[in-house]
Design goal:
It is a single chain. The chain is an alpha/beta fold and about 425 residues long. The chain has two domains: about 230 residues, 3-Layer(aba) Sandwich (Aspartate Aminotransferase, domain 2), CATH 3.40.640.10; about 130 residues, Aspartate Aminotransferase, domain 1. The chain is built from 16 helices and 14 strands. The strands form four sheets. It has a seven-stranded mixed β-sheet, with helices on both faces. Helix 3 runs antiparallel to helix 11, helix 4 packs parallel to helix 11 and helix 15 runs antiparallel to helix 16. It is globular. It binds D-serine. The site of D-serine has 4 residues, from loops.
């Protein structure tokens, strides 16, 4: 229909589909959701207003969406083994805001990871609501190892006595010890919030430990490794359920997006399958194969490897680059060759977030399209060629064509 009525947008959607088909999409926070998830998110449920919660709505006509939302809640609880779920948050930032609103007062002290070391805007950045409304103190990673030093985290918690500690990151390639975080939080009388947006799919796939038994509240987006629609979810202990619900609606949002809630329910069911477990395992194997390929050729990765789906290249410490603030230039060179990544700060980056010195990339999307170790070695070797000669247009064009040929063999199955 769209083709007939709005050719302009139809063509752009096709163009983006081609881009997703024929480029290596390696931004670690992206994924390809299933056709079924897309079907639910493009359904007539889009048309319904449903302010409130199942059986407690402000409008009539909710008998169908009540069932949809109840199924989504039950599936979320089962998938994560959680006591309580709110499936209405529209995005990760909103979910985090609601989590703070539910448990804290404005001005309370929170401890979160420094954004430039792998945190998130909503973990206390001064330009974000979190840094403006709450009194954040930041922790980081060890400068030498790139790893979280849990003893330093503990010392800071004892010194600062925050009301909440936030664990969960956007650029940390290693396993997070949620049990240890909960011990520290208990020692200082703080709530523990886990933001597992990046690793939710790895957790439910059984390849990363879960914060659910340990954290008071867990937030996550649903479109990253979890492979659902672009949205979010809050899980918590039963005792915080009412406060979380009130914080989401009417505290923060109006009508929930029931079409997206349906799509989340579909994704949660998919994530319960054995195939999804294999997917989560392969995502890590692929990341580790890529890490080894890159490191064997002299690329410096923060923390010298990965335990999860993402890699962070330090271009300053990569000898054949050895420059500060060139992440963007190298990400553009990779894009010229059909390899899509993002420029990112590295821990203790001497440059600025506008000119960061690293490149962040990951394997969720390539693994969804069926790439295994053999393909990851190819990808790594292409990346090395580009990183060594970022201005060689002929070489980049050749790689772009080779990428396209490889992509043809691994259809994302939209
Ligand atoms: N934008 C997300 C990411 O790329 O990690 C975090 O919100």
């Amino acid at each position: 229909m769209l083709k007939e009525t709005d050719n302009e947008i139809y063509n752009l959607i096709q163009e983006e589909k081609d881009r997703q088909d024929y480029e290596l999409n390696m931004i670690p926070s992206e994924n390809y959701c299933s056709k079924e998830v897309l079907e639910a998110s493009g359904s007539v449920l889009n048309n319904k207003y449903a302010e409130g919660y199942p059986k407690k709505r402000y409008y009539q006509g909710n008998r169908v969406v009540d069932e949809v939302e109840t199924i989504a809640i039950e599936r979320a609880k089962k998938l994560f083994g959680a006591e309580y779920a709110n499936v209405q948050p529209l995005s990760g930032s909103g979910a985090n805001m609601a989590a703070y609103f539910a448990l804290l007062e404005h001005g309370d002290k929170i401890m979160g990871m420094e954004l430039s070391q792998g945190g998130h805007l909503t973990h206390g950045s001064p330009v974000n609501f979190s840094g403006k409304l709450y009194n954040f103190v930041s922790y980081g990673v060890d400068e030498k190892t790139g790893l979280l030093d849990m003893e330093k985290v503990r010392e800071l918690a004892i010194k600062e006595k925050p009301k909440m500690i936030v664990a969960g990151y956007t650029a940390y390639p290693r396993t997070v010890d949620f049990k240890k975080f909960s011990e520290i939080a208990q020692e200082v009388g703080a709530y523990l919030m886990a933001d597992v947006s990046h690793i939710a799919g790895l957790i439910v796939g059984g390849v990363h430990n879960s914060p659910v038994p340990y954290a008071d509240i867990v937030t996550t987006t649903t479109h990253k490794t979890l492979r659902g629609p672009r949205s979010a979810l809050i899980l918590c202990k039963e005792k915080y359920g009412k406060a979380v619900d009130k914080a989401v609606f009417p505290g923060l949002q109006g009508g929930p997006h029931e079409h997206i809630i349906a799509a989340k329910a579909v994704a949660f069911k998919e994530a319960m399958s054995n195939d999804f477990k294999k997917y989560a395992e392969q995502t890590i194997k692929n990341a580790q194969t890529l890490a080894k390929t890159l490191m064997d050729s002299g690329v410096k990765l923060v923390s010298d490897g990965t335990d999860n789906h993402l890699l962070l290249i330090d271009l300053i410490k990569t000898e054949f680059v050895g420059k500060i603030g060139v992440g963007k230039e190298y990400a553009v060179a990779l894009e010229d060759a059909g390899i899509i990544t993002n420029a990112n700060t590295v821990p203790y980056d001497p440059s600025t977030p506008f000119k960061p010195s690293g490149i962040r990339l990951g394997t969720p999307t390539l693994t969804t399209r069926g790439f295994k170790e053999e393909e990851m070695i190819k990808v790594g070797n292409w990346m090395i060629e580009v990183l060594k000669n970022p201005e060689d247009s002929e070489m980049k064009e050749r790689i772009r064509n080779e990428v396209k040929e490889l992509c043809k063999k691994f259809n994302p199955n939209f």
